[in-house]
Amino acid sequence: MQFKLAFVSAALATLALASPAPRNEPASSCSTGPVQCCDSVQTASQAAADPGTLILLGLIGVLIGDVTGLVGLTCSGINVAGGGTCSSQAVCCTDNATGGLISVGCVPVTL
To answer: Could you count the other beta carbons within 10 Å of the beta carbon of residue 23?
Structure first.
């Protein structure tokens, strides 16, 4: 019984370390493309629990287990150099390939 408890505790600790909490980065640190303004931003686990988001990810060939960072929904580019603003959540994402419908690997940024 103690072995099971120790194993489960170690597994949970590993998961916690493997999933760091997203933190705000300066917009200037975004090197993967334009800063995005997303209407909604979810963690991978929240996206997995949302059937609509899960279907969208499947349609673009993204497995939810492969997602690191946040998932942004209904995103549009922001011209940071031009003093762009975002009334929702500004993020920097590693994959914006779907024309703003869904972006993956996002990190919140400060404008």
So the answer is: 7
